[in-house]
Amino acid sequence: MERERFSELETVLDAIESRVQMLTDAAPNRGVDLRYKTLEPVQQVFARLELAGPERFMSSIHAGIDVRGDGSAEPYLGSLRRRSIDQRSGESAAAALRRVLLESD
User: Fold this and answer.
1) pLDDT in tens, 2-57
2) Is the four-CA dihedral 104, 9, 2, 34 of positive or negative sign?
């Protein structure tokens, strides 16, 4: 687990975008056999990038991107109750997250 602090939302979103690109390229793309069933790569969360802030406690923004084992990425809002963000045609997960967070600003 790694933590970083940023002072500007744009800077955070740039960092998330570059990290997602790196992680999607590194995704293993293989299933996991669990004796009673096999988890396909798309069912596995390979990495999770989370954004919370700007307050230190009781953050007003909770969002992130899950990178799946097959290299796909899914943006979401929320922490305990995650809601998927719909990606527009041709839009990356990071771009969808950026769009939603900047619209709410």
Assistant:
1) 888 898 999 999 999 999 999 999 888 888 888 888 889 888 899 999 999 888 77
2) positive
**Cα 60 from Cα 105, distance rounded (Å):** 11
Is 46:27 a contact under the CB 8 Å cutoff? yes
The span from the CA of 74 to the CA of 96, in Å, is 9
Q: How far apart are the first and last CA of the chain?
A: 28
Distance of CA 69 to the CA centre of its chain: 13
3 state SS for the chain: CCCCCCCCHHHHHHHHHHHHHHHHHHCCCCCEECCCCEECHHHCEEEEEEEEECCCCCCCEEEEEEEECCCCEEEEECCCCCEECCCCCCCCHHHHHHHHHHHCC
Whether the model clears a pTM of 0.90, i.e. scores above it, the answer is no
